[in-house]
Amino acid sequence: MRSVIEARGLTKRFSGLTAVSDVSLSCEHGVIHAVIGPNGAGKSTLMNLLSGDLKPTSGNILIDGIDVTGSGSSQMSLLGVGRSYQRTNIYPSLTVVENCNLAVQSRSKFSMRFLSDVGSHPEVEVDTKNVLERVRLESVAQKRVSELSHGEQRQVEIALALAIKPKVLLLDEPLAGMGAEESLSIVALLQSIRSEFAVILVEHDMDAVFALADTLTVMLNGGVIESGLPQDIRSSDRVQAAYLGEDFSD
Amino acid sequence: MDAATFFIQTMNGIQYGLLLFLVASGLTLIFGIMGVINIAHGSFYMIGAYLAWSLMGWVGNFWIGLVAGVMVALVLGLLLEWLFIRFLYDRDHLQQVLVTYGLILIFSELRSMIWGDDVHSVPIPELLNGSIQITENLAYPIYRLWLSGVCIVIAVLMFLGIQHTRLGMMIRAGESDREMTKALGINIGLIYRFIFALGITLAAFSGMISAPISSVFPGMGSQVLIVSFVVVVIGGLGSIKGAMIAALSVGLIDTFGKVIHLDIFGINIFPEMSGMSIFALMALILTLRPQGLFGREH
Amino acid sequence: MLIFLPVFSELYYIQFASKILIMIIFVSSLNLLVGFTGLVSLGHAAFFGSSGYVLALLSPADTSMNLFVALLASMLCVGVLGAVFGAVVLRTKGIFFIMSTLALGEMLFYFLHDTAFAGGSDGIYIYDRPGFNLFGWWQLDLSNVSHFYYLALILVCLVLMLIKRIMNSPFGRVISGIRVNEHRTKALGYHTYKFKLVCFVIASMIAAISGFLAAVQFGVVNPEMVGWHASGHALMMVILGGKGSLLGPVLGTTTLMLVEEIFQEATKHWQLLTGIVVVLVALFFPNGLVGLKFSKKRSEI
Fold it and tell me: How far, in Å, CA of A89 to CA of B274, rounded?
C-alpha cells in the first residue's frame, strides 16, 4: 500500500547541533507507526518537521507521494496533517466547544466572513459534537479548558487534531503526565480510530507503544538505529543496549 | 559636497550612531534579561540631559556633575524597579507598555515642574574644549572624539560581557527565562533591580554626554526613544552586533539626509524628507527580514 | 438621556460629548486589535489622523462635499494605508510589533510635519464642512453642534454593532483563536497573517471614521493627530475600560476624558495626575472597569 506520509533523509541542524539526522520513515493508512527513543533523541524535532512547525535543513517530506517539503504548519494542516503537542497547546481561556469549533471551521471556506453570524453555519457545531462524543468530552463541553483536569486537557489536544479530519495524525506523547486509568482510556480511544488514519506516535509509555504500534522506529542522538516490527525491535540487541535496557533499569 | 565636509559629516554620523547604540543597548538589556519593554527609556535620556544641565551648572564642573548624575540615575533606577517595574515581569506587554507610558507622562510633567519647559545648553568642559587640526582647513572638535571614544569603550565592555557571561548568554537567547536565571542560583530580584538601574543609567548617561553638543529640550526623550526602537528593530533583538551596525547606519543616514540635496521626479527627497529616511529603512528591512538583520527567526 | 442631551445642555457640553463619542469610535477600533486580536499597536493614531488629512486634501476650497462621499473616500484611502502598514508590521511579533507600529506611525508624522505637501507643522484648515442634503427639504449641517452630535452618536452605535457582529462571525472566531494561541491556530490550518491583516485593515477603517469626525469637528488637521501620544492616549482608554469587551472602550473613554477634564481644571500639570492614574490602573486593575464591575460573571470572549 502507498504511504500517506513519508520522510526521506530528514535532517535538521540548529547552529551546529544536529537534532535530527538523515531520518527516513513512512506510514500507511490504518497503520500506527511508533517512534521511540530516549529523551533528546530528536523525536519531538522530527514531529515538528513533519507538521511544518520547523523546516528541514535537508531531506524531503511527501504527502500521498507528492513532495511538500518547505510547507509551513498551516499549509501542512490543510494538506491533511493533524497533530497533538507534547506540551498541551490549546486555547485555555475558551470552552471545549469553542476550541473544537475553531478546529472544525478551519476546513470550511467561510472563515474570512466577518459579517455573517456563526449561527448561520450550524454544520460546524454538528461536527464538533461528533468529535467530542468520540473523545468522550461531551460532559465538559461547555467548560473552559483551563478548568479541566490535565487528562481532559490532553483529550482536547487530541480532539483538535481529529477535528480537522486529517489523513495523518501526528501524536506527540499523548499520554504525557497521565495516570494509569486515563492512559488506558486514551489507548482505547486510539484503538477505536486507528483504522481511519495514518498515525505517527511518539510515546514513552512502552506498554502503550507495544499495545498500539504496527511498526516501530527507534531513534538515538538524532538518527534511526533500528526500524521494524515490534517483536523484532523487542529482541534487537542494539535497541536493548542503546535504549530499552537502560530505560527499564530506572 | 567637498571632501572636508564629507569627512566631518561621516564622523558626526558615526558619533551619533554610537550614542544611539548606547541608548538602544540599555533598552535591549532590559528587554533581553527581564522581558520588559520599557517605553519610558527615552525619558531617562531626557532626564540625564537635564541632570547634566542643572548639576553641572550647580557644581560648576563637568566631571563632578557627570559622576553625580550617574549616581542619581542609578538610585532612580533602583527605586523605580522597586516601586513599579518588579510587578511587570509576569505581565503581558500591554501592561508593560501602559505602566511605562504612564511614567513618561509623570516624568515629562515633573521635568516641567522642576526644570521648566525652556531649551538649555550645556558648555563643553574645559579639558575637552577645542579642535584637532586635521588638515589646513579641516578641524574636528575634541569633545565629539572623546564622546565617540567613551561609547566605543562601553560597547566593547558590553560585547565582552555578553560573549563571556551567563547573563550575556540569556541576552543573546533573546528571551527572558526566570527559571533559567533561578537555576543559576543567584538572587534574581536583586539582579533584576540592578540590571534595570544599569539599563536606564546607560540612557541617562547618553543624555548627559550628548548635552554639550545638542541642546537640552523637553521633547528629546521621545525623539531618541523612537530612533532607538528603529535601531533595535533593524538590528534584531538580542544581537549586539546587529544593534551596532543598525545604530551606525541610522546615525549616518540621518546625518547625511540633512545635508545632501536630492530630487526625484522634481520632488525633494533630501533634506525635506530626511526625517522619514530611517523609518523607510526600517520598513524595508522588515519586508526583507522580519527578524531584523542579525536576529534569529521567531 | 443621550438622545436628548442637545435639547437641554449647554453648547460646550454638547461639543465635549461629541468629542467623547469620536474617541469611543477610535478606542473601539484599537480595542479590536489590542483586546480582540492581541495586537498591541502604538501607531494606531496614524489612521485616525490620516483620515482627517484625506478629508482636508479632498475638500474643495469653496463648496462643501457630500458627507457620505467624503467619509467613504477617507475610509477607503485609510484602508489602503492600513493594508500597506499592516503588511509590514504584521511580519513581526510581540515587542517588535509594538516598536514597529510606533515607528511607522512616526514616519507618517515626520512626512506630514516636514513636507509642504500637507501644510507642514501647521496642518490644514477645513473651511467648508461636508454636509448632506436630503432631497432639498432637509439639510444636515455639521457646523451645527447638535447635528454633529447626532451624527457622531449614530456612528458610535453603528460601529459598536459592527464590532459585535464581527466578533460573532466565523472570522471573529479565528481572531479570538489568534489572540489566545496563535501557534495552534496556525497549526489548525489558518493562514494567521491574512486574518490579522484583514483585521488590521478593518480597524484602520473604523479609526478613519473617528478621524474624519474629529477633522470635521475641529475644522483643522495637524501632524499631532497621527503622533504616537495620540496612540498612547487611546491605549490608556482601552485598558482603563477593559480590553476585549465591547463596552470597555465606551467606559474607558468616557471616564478618562471626564477625569482629564477635572484634572485640567485643577492644575496646569494635569498630565502628572493622568500618568499616576494610568500606572495604578495598569498595575492593579489590568482588567479595567469592565473587569471590576463584572468580575464575578465576566467570561472572556
Answer: 46
- CATH number, domain containing residue A229: 3.40.50.300
SS3 A170: strand
Contact C173 A102 (CB under 8 A): yes
Rounded-to-integer distance, Cα B276 and Cα C108, Å: 8
The reply to whether A23 falls in a domain is: yes
Three-state secondary structure of B8-24: HHHHHHHHHHHHHHHHH
Is B175 strand, coil or helix? Answer: coil
**CB < 8 Å to A144, chain C:** 299
Predicted complex ipTM: 0.90
Q: Which residues in chain B touch residue C42, judged by CB atoms under 8 angstroms apart? A: 39, 97
Domain that holds residue C165: 18-226
- Cα–Cα dist B230/C255, whole Å: 34
Nearest CB among A112, A144, A164 relative to C189 is that of A164
Whether residue C244 is contained in a domain is answered as no
Quick check: is C294 in a domain?
A: no
Q: What angle do CA A80, A81, A83 make, to 5 degrees?
A: 140
Q: What is the pLDDT along chain A (250 residues), one digit of tens a residue?
A: 689 999 999 999 987 788 999 999 999 999 999 999 988 889 999 999 999 999 999 999 999 999 999 999 999 999 999 999 998 999 999 999 999 999 999 999 999 999 999 999 999 999 999 999 999 999 999 999 999 999 899 999 999 999 999 999 999 999 988 888 889 989 999 999 999 999 999 999 999 999 999 999 999 889 999 899 998 888 888 877 776 555 443 3
Domain holding B245: CATH number?
Answer: 1.10.3470
- Do B201 and B21 contact (CB within 8 A), yes or no? no
Q: How many structural domains is chain C composed of?
A: 1
**Residue of C99, C110, C281 to mutate for B, most B C-beta atoms under 10 A:** C99
Residues of B in contact with C236 (CB under 8 A): 98, 101-102
B134: in domain: no
- Cα gap B116→B96, rounded to integer Å: 28
| Amino acid at the residue B253 | I
Question: H/E element holding A219?
Answer: strand A215-220
Query: Chain B residue with minimal CA distance to C90?
Result: B290
Domain extent, residue B34, equals: 15-122+141-288
CA distance B195 to chain C (A): 19
Domain, as residue range, for A29: 3-90+165-249
Interface chains of chain A (3 or more CB pairs under 8 Å):
C
Which pTM does this prediction carry?
0.91
Query: Are the Cβ atoms of C275 and B280 closer than 8 angstroms?
Result: no
Domain count, chain A: 1
Whole-number Å distance between alpha carbons of A64 and A164: 18
